[in-house]
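Researcher: Next entry in the queue.
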Amino acid sequence: GINAEYGIAAVVTAHSDSLQTLLVRQCAYGTKTINAIARCSKMRVLDLSQIAEITEAAWNTFAVSLPLLENLDMSWMFGVKDPHLSLLLEHCPRLKKLNIDGHKLITTKCFRKMLVTLTDGSIVRSAQFLPDLQFVSMQYCNQMDDEELAEIVNHCRGSLLIKSYYGEDLEFS
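Model: Structure for this entry, 173 residues:
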């Protein structure tokens, strides 16, 4: 409860200048801890799975504060919507691995910027939006469009693997 919240936030704050990996899966924490995590500009690996909802203000601070993040597990975090994930993805250009299993409100829309249409009409993977993203797990995400995800994967030409609703791999074909 409250004591865990202050304990986690205090440890994160004490090491915010050097913290690169934080695994706080299923921990009882909230805004105070999320704000402490947002000060960890060197964070590369973060597991926030199965935590309670984050306030809008805390999410907006957190989402734009981790530019070096490479691996993020935010599975089964309830209340996350497209604008939240989109904001985070726009500010995490080095992201390689993302787990969003169990999100009921996120749609494929967050990933559309991965593709760009060239002047000749061909569609290719964007060099600016998530250029390093290699794997996304989207199991039990009710709002995802598998056809659109398959199109994104195909246009990424083997550089992206998506695990779909039932755990099936959507791979370049």
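Model: The longest helix spans residues 2-14.
Researcher: Noted, moving on.
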